[in-house]
């Protein structure tokens, strides 16, 4: 039990303080470059994930308000953006299709 608590503490500590970012073990140029690339990709993906959540939230808000006109307009934007995220590698094609399909079903139910 104590080992589990210790592992959880270490993981949260390392994630919270970016332990690995400052203490990279890489000694080769290529490994250091991969670390830099990973940091950039992580930041970019975080931005796109937030955008995705906000886009879906806008459609859901319009659906909850019962405004079919606004919901259908935001759904068009959401459909385009979600499929754009597929081309950027943020989502798999099936995941994007599932999200769009569920949003379409919710809008059509209004």
Radius of gyration based on Cα positions: 20 Å
> What name is given to the CATH topology?
Methane Monooxygenase Hydroxylase, Chain G, domain 1
Main sheet?
A: none
- Helix tally? 5
Q: Look at the helices and sheets and give the structural class.
A: mainly alpha
| Proportion in helices | over 70%
Query: Taking all residues together, what is the mean pLDDT?
Result: 85
Which ranges are low-confidence, i.e. pLDDT below 50, for 5 or more consecutive residues?
Answer: none
| N- to C-terminal distance | 51 Å
**Any idea what the CATH architecture is?**
Up-down Bundle
Task: Name the beta content range.
Answer: under 5%
Can you tell me the number of structural domains? Answer: 1
- The CATH superfamily turns out to be Ribosomal protein S20
* Text of the CATH class: Mainly Alpha
Order of helices and strands: HHHHH
Overall 3D form: elongated
Total strands: the figure is: 0
């Amino acid at each position: 039990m104590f080992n589990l608590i210790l592992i959880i503490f270490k993981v949260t500590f390392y994630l919270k303080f970016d332990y690995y970012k400052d203490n990279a073990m890489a000694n080769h140029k290529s490994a250091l470059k991969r670390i830099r690339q990973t940091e950039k990709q992580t930041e970019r993906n975080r931005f796109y994930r937030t955008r995705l959540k906000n886009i879906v939230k806008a459609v859901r808000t319009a659906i909850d308000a019962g405004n079919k006109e606004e919901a259908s307009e935001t759904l068009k934007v959401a459909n385009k953006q979600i499929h754009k995220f597929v081309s950027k590698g943020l989502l798999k094609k099936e995941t994007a299709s599932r999200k769009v399909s569920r949003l379409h079903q919710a809008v059509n139910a209004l």
